[in-house]
Specification:
The chain is mostly helical. The chain contains twelve helices and no strands. Helix 3 runs antiparallel to helix 4.
Length: 251
């Protein structure tokens, strides 16, 4: 364990990244606990309001912490105690900001609505990607190149360009998560690129218009996938971030 820690964390200079990831996850979890207590009317926590009764969302201190941590990391050059402190500040700020990602996306207070699930999904996705980078994966599969290939700029550029193109194809097929993870692990993007596109994706609208069989297969596969994974995904998000408020019925 000590050898792995020294070889994979200390030597590559990933200790600030580890601190940032830990601060990011802890800040998000603590924030969700506090907001759920406020929602239930329990504990000493209350919403913060500024002058005039304006509710101050925690994305505001999150932005300030992210700015402070980012500039601090640049000033510290990634070394020393300053880099670790900046990493913690950046992780805390990112946790607060992404916890209200849905609010930023919709420009509306959708924290406890169905649309608010996007915040939890974005936090989980970010934590997973940073975790992959922490254990040694690099964007566009550069970690898969040998020492000789890394010395050849042409080989590096071709590899990165190919992986980026495959990720774009997966994205065009409506598989955003697959494309994002494929930037870190190229084989994931390859799987998304060779399989059928989602029926509502740009790829399907462009290439399946005159292929009724492919269009029908895409709808059938999407239905089976959503039926299988929508329920577990919703329960997982509810367990982490809390159950959204019920949508009022329209009369």
């Amino acid at each position: 364990m000590g050898y792995w820690w020294e070889r994979n964390v200390i030597e590559p200079g990933k200790l600030p990244l580890l601190f940032a990831l830990a601060a990011f996850i802890l800040t998000f979890l603590i924030t969700r606990v506090v907001t759920r207590l406020i929602r239930a009317g329990k504990g000493p926590f209350r919403n913060i309001s500024g002058s005039g009764g304006v509710h101050i969302h925690h994305v505001v201190p999150g932005v300030l912490l992210t700015i402070a941590g980012g500039f601090g990391a640049v000033a510290s050059d990634g070394h020393g105690l300053g880099a670790l402190i900046s990493a913690v500040l950046f992780g805390m700020g990112a946790g607060l900001v992404l916890d209200e990602f849905a609010l930023i996306l919709h420009l509306d207070d959708v924290y406890w609505s169905e649309a608010g699930r996007k915040s939890v999904e974005m936090v989980v996705l970010t934590a997973a990607l940073v975790g992959l980078m922490l254990v040694g994966f690099l964007p566009f599969g550069v970690n898969d190149l040998s020492e000789e290939e890394l010395q050849d700029r042409g080989a590096v550029m071709v590899s990165m360009g190919t992986n980026f193109l495959v990720a774009l194809i997966a994205l065009a097929k409506g598989k955003a998560r697959t494309a994002i993870f494929g930037v870190i692990i190229p084989i994931v993007a390859v799987v998304g690129a060779v399989r059928l596109a989602r029926p509502t994706s740009a790829w399907a609208r462009r290439f399946y218009r005159r292929r009724p069989r492919a269009r029908a297969r895409a709808w059938k596969r999407a239905y089976r996938h959503d039926r299988r994974w929508a329920g577990p995904s919703r329960r997982f998000q509810d367990w982490i971030g809390g159950t959204p408020d019920a949508t009022p019925e329209r009369h």
